[in-house]
Structures are given as structure tokens and as C-alpha cells.
Amino acid sequence: MMKYNIDKELKKLTKYKGSAVIHLYPLLNIAYQINNCKSDDRVTVSKYSTLGYNGGELSTLVIEPKQCADTLPCIVFYHGGGFLLKASTAHYQIAKWYAEKANCKVVFTDYRLLPKYRYPVAIEDCYNTYIWAVHNAERLNINSDKIIVAGDSAGGNIAANVAVMLWDRKQLSPKGTLLIYPVMDRSMNTESMRRYTDAPIWDAGCTELFWKIYLKDQDPRQIQYASPMEAGSLGHFPKTYVEVAEFDCLHDEGVAFAEKLQSEGIVVELHEVKGACHGFEAATESKIVADSVNRRIQWIRSVFD
Description:
The chain has 305 residues and is an alpha/beta fold. The chain has helices spanning 18-23, 25-34, 89-101, 121-135, 137-140, 154-168, 191-195, 204-214, 251-263, 287-304, and strands at 43-51, 57-65, 72-78, 105-109, 142-152, 176-180, 239-247, 268-277.
């Protein structure tokens, strides 16, 4: 395996090859199923049954600061995992930090996954979750004028696409998009995609397999909400935060998307996390993650304010 100068705090992640993650996803999902997101001394977690695409039933969480009766802003959070993996304990922890530190609600849905559910099921499930949050804002004590869509990796792809779908379908648009090492371009024609073919957690081979499974048998004219870099004008996009990892095959497409937004006059905050690989958020006890989360919280607060 090629050696990268990955920060010592993330060394434990380097033993996970992307190909192994892809092939072991059924076992990982069994493990992730056990790790439910539960209330603790800082946040309260409530579970709802919500409608997904074509009448599908989804399990959706609302995470909020402890003992909060106020109407609060909201983050609609879409977890990563290549559209194959369920949410991990790290995803739940990040979501809890957002709720606690940004003093907001976090809506977190268990959208349906590959290989059984191909495009557009996941993206439509997540669109429906956003609409559910807006339509139930009064009951959930959510300020529907202050919503951010957020996601990491595949979840970043979802967040960006949901923002476009909401505009196209003339629904209430979010105030911001928070994209963490997002999957943005099915062409895979970037330097980082050519360079990081053996990086930890997720690599170019994983990305190629993901796109092949996700868009199998799809009419090319019907996949407009799959690859955000192929979207038309994005002049309607909200303020956006993009974070990329230095040693990640998705690095360049995250940067390219940020630059595309900036070229259309959108306010974008772009950060590269040095010494990090894809999925570095799994190291929740590291200073790298703490610094990244604190930086995001500042941005979230600025959007809500």
C-alpha cells in the first residue's frame, strides 16, 4: 500500500483499505445497527417514522439540546457511507455536537441503501425528509426559515443535490449547505482521483464501483440529481461550506465544486484538512476532528445569525 503522510492521530484509520470496506459492508452494517443513537446528558434524541420515496417508510431522528423548549434553527443531516453503509457511531456523535454546540435541531434520517435501492431512491428519501421537517416545523419547534442541509461523502452529494431539487421543485430552499469531503462528479476525471488509488477508507476504485452500482441501468437523461458538478446554473445556491481531506481521491472534485459556486457569485468557505484521509471524522477523539467541528460550528452560527 502506498504510504501517505497521514497525521499520527489518524494512523488507526490507515489499516482500513477501501476495497475491504466495500466488500465487508454487510458485516459493518450489522455492527452499525447495534449502535443506536440515544439521548445522553447533553442532547435528547427522538425517533419518528417518516415517508420516503414511493411510500417507503424511514426511521428519522430529531436530535436537540437537552431540556430545550425553544424554537430553534435546524440542520438536516445526511450521513455518508458510499450509499452502502448505515450511519456509524461517528456520524451520530458529529450530529450530536452540531445540535449541542450550534444550539439547533438536527434531523437525521436512515435513508435506503445500495445495492437493493439504486438511484434515485436515496436522494428522493432524503428530499422527502427535508420536506417532512419543513411541514412539521411547528410541531418539532423548528424555525423553517433557518435550515442548513449537511452531509459527508455520499451525504455531501445528497445535501448538494437536495438543495438543487428544492429549487427546481419550488420548495423552501435551505440557508446553507455544509459539505464534508463530498462525492460530486461521476466523471472521476481529476488529479486526486488518479493519484489516490490506494488511500485508506475510500479510494478511486471504491468510487468507480459506487457509481457503477448506483446508476446501473439508468437512462442518462434521468440522472440530473446524481452528479452535482454536472448541474446547470447554481446561481440560486445558498451559502456553502466545503471541507476536503488532503489524501482523498475526492479532494479535487470538492474543490472544483466550491470554485464552480464561487464563479457564480455564491459565498463559499473552503477548507483543506492537512494530513487527513477520507472518513477522518471516524477519529472523533482527535484534535483534527475537534478543530474541524469547531470551525464548522462557527460557520453554522454565522448562517443562522
